[in-house]
Amino acid sequence: MSIVDTTVPVGGPTLAQERRLVTAIPGPRSQELLARKAAAVADGVSYSIPVQTVAAGGGVLVDADGNSLIDLGSGIAVTTVGNAHPKVVAAVQEQVAQFTHTCFMVSPYESYVEVAEALNRVTPGDHAKKSALFNTGAEAVENAVKIARKYTGKQAVVAFDHAYHGRTNLTMALTAKSMPYKSGFGPFASEIYRAPMSYPFRDGLTGPEAGKRAISMIEKQVGADNLAAVIIEPIQGEGGFVVPADGFLPAIVEWCNANGVVFIADEVQSGFARTGTMFASEQFGIVPDLITTAKGIAGGMPLAAVTGRAEIMDATHGGGLGGTYGGNPVACAAAIAAIDAFENDGLVERAQEIGEILLARLTALQATDARIGDVRGRGAMVAAEFVKPGTTEPDAALTAAVAKACIAEGVIVLTCGTYGNVIRFLPPLSIGDELLAEGLDVVAAALAAN
Ligand SMILES: *Cc1c(COP(=O)(O)O)cnc(C)c1O
Q1: CA R_g for the chain
Q2: Reduced to 3 DSSP states, what percent helix, strand and coil does the chain have, rounded to the nearest 5?
Q3: Domain that holds residue 76
Q4: Residue 1 maps to a domain
Q5: What is the Å distance from ligand 1's center to 232 Cα?
Q6: What is the mean pLDDT of residues 392-421?
Q7: Which of 344, 370, 403 is the last residue of a domain?
Q8: How many domains does the chain have?
Q9: Domain with 114 in it: what CATH number?
Q10: Predicted confidence band at 7 (pLDDT cuts at 50, 70, 90)?
Q11: Does position 4 have pLDDT exceeding 70, yes or no?
Q12: Which of 158, 159, 245, 313 could form a disulfide with 207 if both were Cys (CB 3.0 to 4.6 A apart)?
């Protein structure tokens, strides 16, 4: 018997680009796996799409029962270049046959350096930059905070309402939402303070007004003398795809620059062409001191980075940063291929086109349905926030029902938001227009039926 299972479709753009339902979701094979999952995998590790994935690519995900689902989630903003992207697959195959690991801290290799060079080039600002590589977004955030503390000699860190920065101890402390991320997992890291975010739909403030409010809180409750860093997602991810009002981020950056505080942009979700620019920071005209990246960086391989001003990045003594697997050579090869695709295959422009399609369709829906309180986002990072008509009161039940109906009809949508009342649209940039339009038809039908 061949070791290649020919019954399993191969991923990447070769997959038929269609929505195809041959069983109910989940079908029998998926149900079988989910039963094994329930018996073998810790309950704390949950899932939102109840299927057994066997292949994915372009704009679809195929399950073990032969269903083909339209992917509007990209595995949470990871497969931005497309799942099993041919350039990424080729790079991984070549590298994995050469060597799989040395530990960069034991014996260095070129691909790590090449990823650092690429990140220093593509991140905002033309100042001298350096990078360090890690495995996960949370690890990148942890290290950005370490670096900022070492550089400033100060300890306090300010994060914002609705922030999400990860699930490790420090990043739980930085994350705003208790359930499910923090509840029962304390005590949390100390010297973390929370400032009010600019959330135009809910606070009605202009950017400068919201900036003033946040800075006042920081000055009164923390004090610049104690503050190492401010960390913020330029467009928030898990917190609800919250886009701050124009002028908010520049006000915070200006205050940080004037007060010896390191400004960290957490672009783990918003980075790499997702928002229609290489990084969301560019859309607000800000240049972060440090920027954390992960998710979209390597086409699905686990890799993360901190990139920033060389003098800040170099403040740490040798051996102070790193980790066994950080900048793994296979993940680095994937990142080089993915960054090449972002820079040279028109993906920034594609994100803008997808954004126009998403915004046009969702604002049209909003015009006829008062339950959609807000439609917002940039590029291929767009959300609809659901409320009780005529109010800003969140409607989490409607949101969950619409998402569930979409999934049952073969469209992968993800929810988010502090109040659980946001559906986020973040398709792979390899999705075709027709498939995207069909996915949005299904969303509209699900909304009409609920
Ligand atoms: C997902 C995410 C993280 C955490 O990344 P992991 O790789 O899951 O540790 C951190 N910050 C933001 C903005 C994220 O979206």
Answers
A1: 22
A2: 40, 15, 45
A3: 7-81+347-449
A4: no
A5: 12
A6: 98
A7: 344
A8: 2
A9: 3.40.640.10
A10: confident
A11: no
A12: 245
